[in-house]
User: What shape does this take?
Amino acid sequence: MSPENYLHLSALLFTIGACGVLLRRNAIVVFMSIELMLNAANLALVTFSRMHGNLDGQIMAFFVMVVAAAEVVVGLAIIVMVYRSRHSASVDDASLMKL
Amino acid sequence: MSTLTALSSLAAETSTSGGEAAQFWILAPIAVAGGLGTVLMRRAVYSALCLAGTMVILALFYLANGAYFLGVVQIVVYTGAVMMLFLFVLMLVGVSAADSLKETLKGQRLITAGFGLGLGILLIAGIGQASVGSFTGLAEANAQGNVQGLASLLFTRYMVAFEVTGVLLTVAAVGATMLTHREKIERSKSQREQSEERVKDGTQVPPLPAPGVYARHNAVDIPGLLPDGTPSPLTVSATLQERGQVREVHHEAMGSLAALEQRTADHQNRPGSVSGALGPGARPERESNRGESGSTRTTDATGTAGDDGDSDGAEEAGK
Assistant: This one.
């Protein structure tokens, strides 16, 4: 087996995540799909690191993880805030900037 | 001899070990299934669990790829912290609401499927274009340990990025706190002010009615019935109403009430000749209960309780 299979798996997971972002209307599930895409990208970075024999790819994946953690914190705070004001976490209901 | 082994270790590998291939072919379908479950499950909690499973499998792939530090961090940070955060927010927002399957945008699913197919073909074709037969492997880079190798890179070449990351995390923590914190602008009303306000407005001065008083059950999710048989929304908690967990039993209760009235009417109507000749003090229901033998005792005007009194009265009337 070649490590390219990891890249194919990563592409597949990224595609699934992108479809989830387009398909779902629950903001939390959309957010989880974004996490899936980030993880797929991380898998590709780790595989690149192995294929090229240096650790820069793993450093990149590490930074992606840190940024994803910060993004989750802020994003979920925004979702909680929107839910408080609109009593719904659906992205369809949040069609106006004001209430 | 030593140069030969050094050369062979530096030489590019072309294939991974059989064990790793077996691991990949077992776990990759599960990871894809988890990803599909994340996207397709109707309930958000199931989606979160599917995503957690996929993340654990990705951690195993990191370990197999020689990224030992990232494999452990993936489990600790993603499945440990991030997914728990997701579940916390899911519980805050309410888990019982499943997504509706109704399509709000026409043709959205078809277009999404087409887009996904196109993106997948594009990505996999791109990987195929860039493919090389051999790869280097991390044996040399990980020679002094994966964590040491990462640390020596992180604290030399990527030092600035690392520090900026620290600033980013701090800003994110402060931002999340500010977003979810609600400042109390006005003083909250005291109990006395609340009660005075209720009396002034004239709305619901006494306590709210209890649930299920006039219904057959007295569970909290069953509304009490008004005298005309309609359920009263005041008796059930607003939270249950919002979640749609109120059980409506008033149709049942109304049905049994109607049946009872029908039976009573039947019993009253059957001995019609008797009830027409009743005296002023007679009890029609008791008479109707004993309607078969009561035709001779209709003159019991005193209406004393007990069968003996009734029979005595009947005898007196007979005399």
Remarks:
- The domain at 18-95 of chain B is CATH 1.20.120.1200 (Four Helix Bundle (Hemerythrin (Met), subunit A)).
- Chain B touches chain A through 81 residues (CB under 8 Å).
- The two ends of chain B are 139 Å apart (CA to CA).
